[in-house]
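User: Write out your own:

AI:
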Amino acid sequence: MVDILIVDDEEEIRVLFYRYLTQLGYEVLWAENGKQASVLFDRYKPPVTVLDLSMPVMDGIEFLKSLDPGLLVSHGIIIMTGNDENSDIETCFKLGVQSFLKKPVNLFELEGNIKRSLDMYKAVSEIKQLNHRLTMRQQDFPNFLWECNKDLQLTYLDDNFTRMIGSPVDSLMGKPFRSLLAAKDVEQFQYKFLDEHHQPKEKIKGLTLDFETRDGQLLALQVFADAHIDNDGKIVGMVGICRDMSIFEQLSGDTVDTEEERVIRINNQFRLIQADAEIKEYLAESGIEADSQPDFLQFLDDPSLEQLLSYSFAQKENIPFPIEIRFIGKNEKEHRFSVQLHFDREGPSLQGQLVPIMAGDQ
């Protein structure tokens, strides 16, 4: 990873800074002008850029204006100024730059400014991760928080999670997330969590998986996750929650018989050909006439699941895992459900019973 980009048209300064900073252990690149720097910055997104203002081709101010304003907050910019550049300094302040060094630059001052900028860069990344955690906490039900790196190896589990699984935290850190799952759900996990390049997807919504406790019991948990994206826009891990699905059973214990409620049926043209009265109410909220046999694909939370539906009809098989659908009601309110679809040869059709994901739909 590149740590520092030096931008100055004077070769003597570039070489001096490069030698000094590489001896301190930093990875350093240099550019002769703002145009070269722009190319390198777009490619490497260095946490710190040491920038001269007076340069040919593209000067320092033009370079700063070419950057995304958000990057000027998360990435450190250190400006080298002369005595006659006060108006430019004012412009830099307005653009969000807060670190300046007078020429000729003292190397110890440069080192201190770089260290402070790198600390700030790391702090911004940590704040983003903490915000992810807080967002995940603010859900309808008690949640168990987890995090993993880009290889889906566990880096954090909260105490409630580990107590539920029955294994100490230290014994689970660094292990693949899939190692927590029942063997039958590992393939589903791989399919839902990884894209075609075997990289983590940016969002997982309401995937129900069986986790295996230390004593061999199976525990159904619903998984939600967001990719953790660093200041350079790269996925570096995932942060998520797991919900204990037994809570749904407790909530539904006081309701009337629900075996025939929220049942849907889909034909091989992916039309919704059967929906009970409650589902029709959700459709009506969305401005959809249930008797018109609406296109079921519009309700899929993950459009790529169309291929899975096609495969199910072609092979005359059940969908191997629950999928998530949603209806958009009044005031753009979402109603989310999980449904396990089973193949019915008499239709042929797929049918299943919707299980609410959100507390308000219980």
Remarks:
- Residues 136-141, 251-260 have pLDDT under 50 and may be disordered.
- The CA atoms of residues 271 and 294 lie 6 Å apart.
- The chain has three domains: 4-128, 139-251, 263-361.
- The chain has twelve helices and 16 strands.
